[in-house]
Write a structure and sequence with these properties.
The complex is a heterodimer. Chain A is built from 20 helices and 18 strands. Chain A is of the alpha/beta class. In chain A, strand 6 and strand 7 form a beta hairpin. Chain A starts with a strand and ends in a 5-residue tail after the last helix. The chains are: A alpha/beta, B alpha/beta.
Chain lengths: 504, 376
């Protein structure tokens, strides 16, 4: 008369295990769903009934109560339908007892009894595995994705009728195509670009290229300022191609987030750092997350462990840009809702391009009035601009400039520098130079004895803010990592200071 | 402000001129009409008090304006009868200069000369010696600002008063240069003396008051208005013995000042610049029209008939073969980005960075707006 089935629902980008309890009792035919379901879950009752009947099974014509526990968590989406259907069958003694013990069930139902894919399978299975579930039944289309979680036996389901037969031992479980583990796949999966982008296509711009390499090596936020058509965007789009691939746990995390956000990952592990390039009309909610109803992750979360690229920075709504300040500092976004608060990971690297002024030419040929320039500068608030470790002015290449190194060459240097940082910060909670908090700068980013005087001179004559000084120090450390030296020498400090030019 | 020099009590003519200047909707042209019709401020004020100003106001007015002018004359009559200006002058320590009298700072009687100038500040002696106006655009480049600062300093060190308009850009830089060198500055404003415009120059206004004078032909409380600035610029031209234009756009207030100066027979010096620099187009055009090019800030002393002192200590140029020397030469005297310097010198970016920082420390280069600006 009573059955309970394990399943899970998405809360933000994380899975939340849910116990589906179904009680079938004599009485007038009725069907109630309790336990904070949202509209999509509540309307599942029609689909469950139709799917059960289409599968040639009998739907109990009595009083059915479905409870979704824990009661305090809002259940959303249609991924609980298969669990409800199995619960109804089990409670009506249509399934052998005990076959669902220790097994979690995910899936959406079609009216014909087919089992359809659900978003966020990886996050859901991961959450279930952490709570001790050893086997999951998932839609066939999600089986490869679910199998990315270690130590969980994955069963694929195609239709409700077939699933019941498998559970009763009448048929064998369907096979699904196992994709090669993403780490072994040579093809890099770029979320935004399908054309290969190589630095060898960029002529000249030695300094801007150097800035890109340093930004990639130390995860520094990067701003290119310059007239239109000089190659700012071209360079910035090539940042993704020189970043080192994600480590396995990072790749799992990124894949989980993208899957939960409803992006198709196709069961493949995302091993390349994501590269997100939202258009400048993006709203605050689409950038940082939120929105009405179920809070959704924003671009900053989808760019987690990767790059958020904002082209034409000056055209973004000032409120949207200022909303980036908190995730830039804390690398988390907290979305508060009535009764609950969600935290989305947002450890991203910001790359941006902007024109220096409305006419785009900038000094010394600028034709804007002082008032126009002042108004343009106000769009990018000083505290926001202060968060860029690297700010470089770009002009068109000189006629004699030749193409530079290819992405492969640069990526090798970047990777070596990243490895050095990972080794240095092995005992610390951060991974790259840009993440070292200001308080630990003196301790961890040591200066060579002869660099001390250069550092003092730099702090004195540039009138740096405390934050600005720490940023220069971190960039200098990345330059030292690229050069493979243990301590920062004066030349690194000088270069770091030049890589952080004044605001546009 | 205990150190402020005492202001001698104003005589009735000066008080009358100030009361007239502070009447509502008073303009320099109306002031001139009143004063010349009734032979001086005293006569003009008494005519206003008796309600006779209407006759002058309607004289050349189109018929549809006549009712408004008559009403204005009545308003003046009331305002003059209950004017609080005499007490205000005493409380603020305002000085009043009346055209044609001995202490009026503009000796020649030319059309457009203001009838009255109100002045406030702690160094009235600023008007005694030679005076040079330094003017230019508000949209100045870092080079232009540095030049204006230097010209102001050179003049101040020679004991010459710097006259300018307290505007953003070149004006402010010239004032600051003079003040930094311990010299005297005169700021001519296009508002009442009790108004600070632009607001961000509040501290500069204070400094100019402390080391010179703030002057205006307009009454207290007059707010900034676009048309007032070109009118004000003729006073700057009249007060100066020489006018220096550091950077000017093709059409701008600095060009107007230079044109007035030429009308009044004041020598005009203009600093030449690159044809790529929009802020140098006005000065280059002035030179093409016959203004003297100002190649060195100290040349302005020659134009005044003074000998420039050997003020500049020659700094050794970086060796031409060194990285720093090559980087400085690669600028070609114009601002450049780091990319351009790296490309022109064929040096790797890190060495360019070290060279630029070295040049910056030695004062050969300045970084602003993302560019490297060489200093010759």
């Amino acid at each position: 008369m009573l059955a309970s089935v394990r399943s899970a629902t998405l809360v933000g980008v994380d899975g939340q295990p849910v116990t589906v309890e179904v009680h079938v009792a004599p009485g007038l035919p009725a069907y109630h769903v309790v336990g904070l379901p949202d509209a999509a879950v509540r309307e599942s009752r029609e689909r469950v009934r139709a799917a059960v009947l289409s599968s040639g099974l009998s739907f109990p014509n009595t009083r059915i109560t479905v409870n979704l526990a824990p009661g305090g968590v809002r259940k959303s989406g249609s991924g609980l339908e298969l669990a409800v259907a199995l619960g109804v069958l089990a409670a009506a003694d249509e399934l052998p007892s005990g076959v669902l013990d220790g097994v979690a069930v995910l899936g959406e139902l079609g009216l014909d009894g087919s089992v359809r894919a659900v978003p966020g399978t990886l996050a859901l299975v991961d959450a279930l595995a952490r709570r001790g579930t050893s086997a999951v039944i998932v839609p066939c289309a999600n089986a490869a994705e679910a199998s990315l979680v270690r130590d969980v036996r994955v069963r694929a389901a195609r239709t409700l009728a077939e699933l019941r037969a498998c559970l009763q031992g009448e048929e064998g479980w369907p096979e699904w195509a196992v994709l090669p583990r993403g780490g072994a796949s040579p093809q890099r999966h770029h979320v935004t670009d399908d054309e290969p982008l190589d630095l060898a296509e960029v002529r000249g711009l030695a300094f801007a290229r150097r800035a890109l390499e340093v930004a990639a090596a130390g995860a520094h936020h990067l701003l290119y300022v310059g007239p239109p058509g000089t190659g700012k965007t071209m360079l910035a789009r090539r940042l993704g191609g020189i970043l080192p691939p994600l480590e396995h746990h990072e790749a799992l995390e990124v894949t989980r987030i993208h899957s939960a956000a409803g992006e198709t990952v196709g069961g493949r592990l995302i091993t390349a750092p994501p590269f997100r390039a939202p258009h400048h009309t993006a709203s605050t909610a689409s950038l940082v997350g939120g929105g009405s109803g179920r809070p959704r992750p924003g671009e900053v979360t989808l760019a987690h462990r990767g790059v958020l690229f904002l082209d034409e920075l000056g055209e973004f709504a000032p409120a949207a840009l200022d909303a980036l300040r908190q995730p830039l500092e804390e690398r988390w976004v907290r979305i508060a809702r009535q009764g609950s608060s969600l935290a989305f990971p947002a450890s991203f690297q910001l790359a941006a391009c902007t024109n220096p002024c409305p006419c785009g030419l900038g000094a010394p040929s600028c034709r804007c009035s002082e008032v126009q320039r002042a108004r343009y500068r106000r769009r990018l608030s000083a505290p926001f601009l202060d968060r860029f470790d690297i700010r470089v002015r770009v002009t068109a290449p000189e006629p004699r400039d030749v193409p530079g190194e290819s992405s492969t060459v640069v990526a090798a240097r970047v990777r070596a520098a990243v490895e050095r940082q990972r080794a240095r910060y092995a005992d610390w909670p951060w991974r790259q130079n840009a993440h070292v908090p200001a308080g630990a700068v003196d301790l961890l980013l040591g200066l060579a004895p002869d660099a001390d005087a250069a550092w003092r001179a730099l702090i004195g004559d540039r009138l740096l803010t405390g934050r600005g000084a720490a940023r220069i120090r971190r960039v200098a450390r990345t330059l030292a990592d690229l050069d493979d030296v243990r301590e920062i020498v004066p030349a690194h400090l000088e270069s770091a200071a030049l890589l952080r030019s004044d605001a546009p | 402000m205990s150190s402020r020099p005492p202001v001698a009590p104003l005589d009735p003519v000066e008080v009358a001129a100030a009361v007239l200047a502070c009447l509502p909707d008073m303009t320099p042209a109306r002031m001139h009409l009143l004063v010349s019709r009734w032979n001086g401020p005293l006569g003009a004020l008494s005519a206003v008090e008796r309600g006779l100003a209407g006759g002058v106001l309607v004289e050349r007015a189109p018929p549809e304006h006549i009712p408004a002018r008559v009403a204005l004359a009545r308003a003046w009559q009331r305002a003059a009868a209950e004017s609080a200006v005499p007490e205000l002058l005493a409380r603020r320590g305002t000085r009043v200069f009346v055209a044609g009298r001995a202490r009026f700072p503009i000796a020649d009687d030319v059309p457009g000369r203001p009838e009255v100038l109100l002045a406030e500040g702690d160094a009235p002696g600023a008007l005694d010696g030679p005076r040079v106006a330094v003017v230019g655009t508000r949209a100045a480049t870092p080079h232009g600002l540095a030049d204006a600062h230097e010209v102001g300093a050179v003049l101040a060190e020679a004991g010459i008063t710097v006259v300018s308009g307290l505007a953003i850009g070149i004006d402010a830089a010239a004032h600051r240069g003079a003040l930094a060198a311990g010299g005297a500055a005169v700021g001519v404003v296009a508002t009442g003396l009790d108004v600070v415009y632009p607001r961000r120059h509040t501290a500069l206004f204070q400094a100019v008051r402390g080391a010179g004078l703030i002057m205006s032909e307009l009454g207290f409380g007059v707010q900034p208005r676009p048309g007032a600035f070109p009118v004000r610029n003729r006073i700057i031209a009249l007060l100066a013995d020489v006018v220096v234009v550091v950077e000017a756009t093709l059409r701008g207030g600095a060009r107007i000042t230079a044109e007035r100066a030429l009308e009044y027979g004041r020598p005009v010096l203009a600093m030449p610049g690159s044809r790529r620099n929009p802020a140098a187009q006005g000065t280059n055009a002035l030179i093409a029209d016959g203004a003297h090019p100002l190649l060195e800030p100290s040349d302005v002393l020659l134009a005044l008939g003074l000998t420039p002192g050997s003020r500049r200590v020659a700094r050794p140029l970086p060796a031409s073969g060194s990285d720093a020397g090559r980087v400085l030469a690669a600028c070609g005297g114009e601002p450049a980005t780091l990319d351009q310097l790296a490309s022109r010198t064929d040096l790797p970016p890190d060495l360019v960075a070290v060279a630029v920082r070295e040049l910056e420390r030695q004062g050969w280069m300045e970084r602003a707006q993302g560019l490297c600006w060489p200093r010759a």
